[in-house]
Each structure stands twice: as structure tokens, then as C-alpha cells.
Amino acid sequence: xxxxxxxxxxxxxxxxxxxxxxxxxxxxxxxxxxxxxxxxxxxxxxxxxxxxxxxxxxxxxxxxxxxxxxxxxxxxxxxxxxxxxxxxxxxxxxxxxxxxxxxxxxxxxxxxxxxxxxxxxxxxxxxxxxxxxxxxxxxxxxxxxxxxxxxxxxxxxxxxxxxxxxxxxxxxxxxxxxxxxxxxxxxxxxxxxxxxxxxxxxxxxxxxxxxxxxxxxxxxxxxxxxxxxxxxxxxxxxxxxxxxxxxxxxxxxxxxxxxxxxxxxxxxxxxxxxxxxxxxxxxxxxxxxxxxxxxxxxxxxxxxxxxxxxxxxxxxxxxxxxxxxxxxxxxxxxxxxxxxxxxxxxxxxxx
Amino acid sequence: xxxxxxxxxxxxxxxxxxxxxxxxxxxxxxxxxxxxxxxxxxxxxxxxxxxxxxxxxxxxxxxxxxxxxxxxxxxxxxxxxxxxxxxxxxxxxxxxxxxxxxxxxxxxxxxxxxxxxxxxxxxxxxxxxxxxxxxxxxxxxxxxxxxxxxxxxxxxxxxxxxxxxxxxxxxxxxxxxxxxxxxxxxxxxxxxxxxxxxxxxxxxxxxxxxxxxxxxxxxxxxxxxxxxxxxxxxxxxxxxxxxxxxxxxxxxxxxxxxxxxxxxxxxxxxxxxxxxxxxxxxxxxxxxxxxxxxxxxxxxxxxxxxxxxxxx
Lengths: 351, 312
Hints:
By secondary structure, chain A is α+β, with helices and mostly antiparallel strands. Chain A is built from 8 helices and 20 strands.
């Protein structure tokens, strides 16, 4: 099912949680609402589920205006952060419950619930109570319960944040597998950029209630719309060095300039950030950008080097056959990709 | 050097002494004494004389038609008041748990019985129950029903006690259930509503099962207190009803001990012990049911898991 969001605004008293949010979500895709806490992603999810209604704007499911339709009439399945499995019911009863409400005959109910349990791999624990399951198993049951009534839209509200690190990776792959197998349009809320990058078809990145960028994960990483997007994605986080614009080039605070990095039509003296990914750093003795090595650390197959550039400590993956000593002076240049220039105040991207 | 540690050692005992003394004198000693008295035949309280030791008192008590009636009245009273008041309290606690207008007014109104003297309130009920001028019969008449002689000789007076009893234990019950309701994660309701569950289904399939532990607690507490039913009789009937048809076990104890001349201390003590055993068995039964239902919910497993996590 296709979803269209038109100029959604949600205000709580004086506080605007979501502001002028417009997006279209294609049928059968898994789209992640990503952002730091307080960015309005959960509010957005609650408006999609019908638990909250927007102050302004319209929500369409295919061609139906569902802006003010109550949750049970939207055909959605919802998975909560702490699963909200009914503790007094068995796994089977939990999965059956949405069908029981819909007055599906008992035999059919059980058959459909069992099929769902097989899909999420909990068929061997149908008679257990949620209290007897691990976190990951509870998560699977919650997904089965959300999917059993064959919703048009599956909504997942930070479903992995209660799991430990190893299980989180396993479960996100499981969620992706289940989503691909059922083909259900899915919206996934998280604050974890790695999680979002690994399972989404598209990511919607939000900040303070405003949509920052809506793109494919790799595109979000390679072509960030602004400084916030670049800062939010990537591990290690993107390096940021203060600089100003001089003659269409970027000059670091110590006066060094790399003439290969150029911006156009930006007035001289504009304060900017020179941002670059750790993997975009090249060791280049002839470069005018000089840096001093602070330390190197071996991280498995890669060596990450910390060095001071323009008065700021930054990090880069270096060529591993060069041995760098502490306090050694090196020259730095950059690859074509993964290097950006942002306005220091507005965050606007110039390069 | 030796004195100080000794004093330190007995210091906690000194702090506990007032409590230990009062419990011994006012709780343990009377219980032991009642059990002893129940086996002494022809016991005279003032002189301490008795004619024999054995189960004679118990035989007499169990053969006494007054006691049998008292026991059956008490059981009927418990079996009517506890379930009805619990059911009403669950509904009222649910209503009080919602965000409604005049919420504090309703809370005060429902908790009123707790802060008023049962004697004073009982007198008010007595007026309401009156078959000539009472408001209850007035309302019954308005609804086209015949007047019930609540305070007279008929079965109506048992009904009157039951109604008054239900009303008296409601506030405590509601408070306990309300605290139980507030412990239920509202997310369960959201989840059910998103799936389209209506109020009644949510109530019976989610609220009541999740409230079960509290309901069980309430039933046990109320059973114990209603087994000891006694003082409700006075404001309504000045005693155990017309022609003694409302004898309860505790009233029977009082009657043997205080009203009869000469008093039959042994019989009073024996009936008190019988009541004690009855309440004990009843409570054990309910606890067994509770333990079973907890096991059904798989809570034990959760507890041990939490315990394991804490050890880690």
C-alpha cells in the first residue's frame, strides 16, 4: 500500500513536534524514520497508526484519506518497543487475539496464527507465556501478532532497543526477512543509524520535527543534504574542521588551503566546516595540508590514525604499509567522495 | 570492656521489648488461653475451676441449633457479600480509574463509608430500610414493587444486613483494586484498541485477568473480615435480628460469653476456635487457588529469571 503524507503538522500546546512533513512511501517498501530522541519520529508513527491525529495536513493510504480514521479501521499492525504482549495469554492466544476481536472463527484463527508463528519461527513455543520467553522470542511473537490480521501497513516503534547488541543484529535481519517474505509496507522507527542503514529501502531522517532528507541509505551517506545528516550517519562519525571561505577555496584556521576543494558563489569569510569521512583521507606528502599524528590504533583489518588538522583532532583510515610515529608530520589530501563543505551556522551544504 | 558489648547485644531487644510485650499480652496469651478454655468443661472464669477436660464443649457447640444457624448465616453472609462487593468494586474502581469529570467528588463519595462511624451510618441505613417511611421501600414502590419488611422477622432482614455489609466493605476494596489497576501498563489497552477491541472485551480479556492477583487479595481480606461479621447487627436490629434469626458465629461467641447467665465460657471458647479453623481453611484454599493461577501465568519462571539476572 502506498502512503502519502501532505504537510503534516502536530502541535502539543506550544510545542511543535512535527512541522510541515511531506513524504510518499512506495508500496512494499521498508522505510525507516530515523532521528535523535525528540525529533518527532514516534509522533509521526503514532499519527500513521491513528493513536494521534495531526493538527494540520493529510494522510492518505493509497487513495483513502485516513487522517482522522481511528486505528482499528486503518488496517495496520503495530509492534511496540516493549512488545506489550498480554502476560496472561499464551503465545498462541496472543497471536490469535486480533483475530478474536475480528470474530474470525476459532479453527481459522488458530490455523492463521500457527502459520504466522512459523513465519517468525516461534512455532515450538505456542503454549508458553510471554514471561517464559527471551526478549528476541517476545519480539517475534509481537511481530506475528501484528501481522496475523494481514495489515496493509506494519509499524514498528523502536522494536530492537530492548535487546542486547548481538540479538539486535539477528532480529533486524529477521525483520527484514519477514518483511520481504510478506511484502507488507513497513515503517520502522529507530534512533540507531546503523540499524536504519542495514535494513531500509529508504530512510527518512528527521530533526526537531522537520524532515531533513528522504533517500536510499547509501545516498544519504554519500550525498548528505546538510551538516546534520552528515553528522548523524557514519561510524566513526564524520570529521569536522573549522574553516572559512577564501577565493572559492576552503582555508583552515591556520591558513592552510587545499586548492582541490572548491566552492562556488560563496562570499569570502563565510565560516564553514570542512567535513570528511575517515575513509576519504589520503596520505599525501606533497599536500599543503599538514597534520601531526597523535596515535594509531589497529582495528582488525584496518588502521585508524588520529591526527591534528587545523587545530582539531580528526581520524582517518590510512594506508597500512606506512608506519606512522607519534608527532610525525604528514601531508593530507582527500578522495573525491566523502568530502563536504557546510555552512557553520545554517548547516547548508556548499560542496 | 565486657559490659559494653553485652549492652550492645541486648540493645535491639530493648527496642523491641514494648512490641514483644504488647503482642504477648494482648495477642498470643489470649489465643492460647482461648484454646485452653475451649477444652475445659464447666469452666468458671472468676475462680478458675473446671469439672473436666476434653472435647465436651465442641460436642455441645456443634449440637447447638443456635450455633448451627449462626454458622450457616455466617457462611451465607460471606458467600453473598464477598463476591457481590468484589464485583461492584471492580466496576467502580474501573470507573474511578478513568479520567472523568468530578473525579475527586466521586472518589470522596465512594470512600465515605471508611471514614464514618459504622454505628452512625448503620442508624441512617435503619431509617432507609424502614418499611413505612424508608426511602428504599419508597423507591421500590415507585418501581411498582411491593414493600419489603427489611427490619422485621422475614427473610428481608438478612437482605438488609447483606446490603449494609456490602456497602461497608466497598471503600477498602475499591482502594486496593484501584492500586492494582494503576499497576497495569496502559500500553496493553493501546495494543488492544489498535486491534479494534471494544470496552467490554478489553475489560474481560485484559483488565480482569491482569487484575487477578489483586482481586484474589481482596477476596481473602474480605472473607476474613466478613467471617467476623458482628457489629453490623447492632445499629440495624439492636442485636441478632428479630427472634435471633441473624445469629452469626461471632455474635454467638458474644452471646455465650456475655448475654447468657451464667455465661458458658467453654462454649464461647470452643466456637471461637471453630471460627478460627474455618477462616484458616478458607484462607489456605484461596491461597492455593492463587498459587495455581500464578503458575498458570508463568510468573514463577519470570521471577527466577529476574533472580538470575540480578545475580549476574
